## 1
Amino acid sequence: MLENKKEFKLISKKNPRSLLPNALTIFGVCLGLSSIKFALDANYVMSVIAITFAAILDTLDGRVARLIRGTSKVGKELDSLTDVISFGVAPSFIMYFWTINELGKLGWLLILIYTVCCALRLARFNLTTVEETEIWKINFFEGVPSPAAAGLILLPLILNLSGLFEFENHAITSSIVILTTSILMISKIPTYSLKRILIPRHMTIFLLLGIGIYLSLIIFYTFKTLFITGLIYILLIPISFFHFRYLRKKSLIFSHDEEEMEDVL
């Protein structure tokens, strides 16, 4: 008598296209874990580079999934779980091995605070939904996203590697940056997500040119470019805050006008 054997499925037959974005996510978490190994070997150059590529893959996997219609519930959960490792655990360990360990128990406490805040931020992100009447909110995050937070807490190390400016008290400076970034992650300050930015067709060539120039700068002036990118992102936080308030006010006025028209009709 033949027994029914359950077929092992690596991916769902209903949506095999989810394999590519999920593979990018897995590769990203491998880079995150590898950055910890590099930090243990005091190879902080490769640690930062590994986190940078992990952040790039984290940006790409969601966009690739939407582009090829390969989104899935597993992919969404997998992305959040791997983000905790790549942008919560990995960068905090890098900073701990580099300088935070000089503060002893206080340094470890800061690492715990940052990692917990990252986990809380990702949990809130998974529960966040955007109503159809407020579709404009999709271009904003609540708080600083975990990949950007990872870049921010690594800024003191990146600055040190760039050679742009020599500074002392690495541990104190890094502690302030870690604590501030942790607060920004769990805050409700709106920051740009840029998920649905429409680029006019005639501007596509300039966008590609800009990407090419930026990648060239990354290759030849890696840490200088990363540090300046971090500074630009910090400057964008207050801009995104006021932009969000403007759009919300505009949306409320529009909704109020619609209600008045309905009352008239």
## 2
Amino acid sequence: MQEEVVRRENHFDGNDYQILEYSDFLLVNGNKKLRIKKIGEKLALLNLFFLDFFKEYHIPAAVVKSHDKNSIKLAKHERYPFHIKILNVVDRRASKIFAKKESELLNLPVFEIHYGDEKDSVVSEGYLISFDLCTNEELKLIYRICSKVNAVLKSFFERRGYLLAEVSCYFGKSDDRIFLVDEFNSRSIKYISMNKEDRVIDPFKLSTSAEIRHYTDKLLNMTSI
């Protein structure tokens, strides 16, 4: 599941902010466009909740506050062109490569670097450094933030009877500060019920409005528990 996201800079109270706006139109399977009523508002609420939640644990996040129903206000930053996917279970790709059972728990989380949103977007650290996309010290800090995010989110879901299967972290930089910027919602978070009899739902393969709405509403309900 992918949503069309419109980013634009704006000017408020004499300061520069970036507005992250979520559309009610989602792209499914790469080319199918769905319009889901109020999904943009729900995605914005989820992102706002989790970014504020991380700040309570002293994890740097760029969020300032809600802007309107389907957007949030972020501190002005330069966005890194890559993101880190944190895996706590074996995904389909790793299952095929290492002959492991899909959704099997990993002893330690795996951090994957993704450049872009295509299926074959995994790159190595060497590319980031060689192409001046970030420095080695910046990458070390990004990894440390990812470790904290993973620990906090795992605890969040375990208290609600779920396992955090995977989550993607996106980063921005302002001066010498690095912080989380967005995508903590049903687009990037995969959770699995601790009840092994429950069906494992892959949010990235949901193809109907009803399926996407149900998964998003379920995640949104967890934020009020």
